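LOG
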Amino acid sequence: MFKIVSAAIAVSLTGLPALANAPDYSPQDGEVLAFDVYRGDTEFGTHEIAFQREGDELLVDVDIALRAGFGPVTVFRYEHESSERWRSGTLVAFSSQTLKDGETYTVQADLENDALVVQGETEEGGDVTNSFAPSILPSSHWHGYPDGLERILNTEFGTPMEVTVEYLGEERIAADGTTIMAHHYRLEGTLTVDLWYDANGRWAGCAFEARGQSIRYERRSAA
């Protein structure tokens, strides 16, 4: 029913492309970014990202759960779980499992000989293998996307996604139970997604249109 771009680094973010108009974001051990997701004005589900450090690496776990229905009857369900492992600003391993439109897709990626080798599936269900430069960014959004970016890793299927990134300036959005000033970016790929990042470079909001429906993310307060 809805097509979702799914939706994380080492002790230093050196080597990871930074947002052009917002500061580098360095997640803390144990930090969680949590969003309430709305379809129009109706609660649609949640999207959470948890960060954990292991030595010089950072592990990022993404958990998305979306549901639409009438009372107890579910008419649409989307679930996505993924894990990213970053070392010195490089994505060295990735795995995901996605339940979408009643089908399950899995992706597994590892860094091999200076290339990220990704075993995934097409949306039609066929197996596919792709190799990416170690600098590839996954479509998990928390890290932001630099100006001039042309391709990212689709985390649902493990396939390349051609994109353009545009910075649209600063504006006030709802987040953390109040309103905040945030940097607004537009990512155009298989879906056009508006993304906002706060003054610290943390992902703060998201909005897109899917099959005539307006989807909106609102970040919960960490307190």
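LOG (cont.) second protein
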Amino acid sequence: MSLLKLVGVLMDYPQDALWQHREELLEAANDPALSPARRRALADFVRGLLDTDPLTAQDRWLRLFDRGRSMSLLLFEHIHGESRDRGQAMVDLIEAYRKNGFELAAKELPDYLPLLLEYLGHRPEAEARDWLQHVSNIVGLLAARAAERESPYALLFELLVEYADGKLDLGVFRKRASEEPRDDTPEVMDRLWEEEAVRFGAEAPGEDCPPTSRPAGRPKAAAQVQP
């Protein structure tokens, strides 16, 4: 299992089946491309995740990645938000997958980071690094936000930054993350749902009026891509 695929598997919503692959994941974490310290940290992450009850691990994942937008694993949400440019970017990314012989095996948004990592795990290393360099600012900010929330998932994002080039100054992102308001608090989430409450009659939006934001909800697991 490549490092990128491993990170994608660990970053994805922890399905129950993950607990059946403990030894395989620990073996993959012992990647010789990583420093001894990083190998130990990654193995500790795997053990910590799999030593946790699945329901508890799933709840922690949802609390981190599915509340608010700041920790979204949908890359284009950080770039385009809800603009129409996001749709075209999705089309272009799907075409890039298909051009290289990969088809999504499930209906999943192509910019879902674990899915992108699954794809890049099959591509030449130089190409994979180039892709990650293009999104390194997003990944770096996710790393900083996860660290600010004292989440062990910060390690996975840091590994991606290092894989891309290792030159990104995470200190800058950590400072930003420490100063920005949280968007996952109960107060903020309640306000979001109030703003997106269904309206009837004259106040109802037209069918051509897109939502201003994406309500939180349990995501599907990353689709598998087949070479």
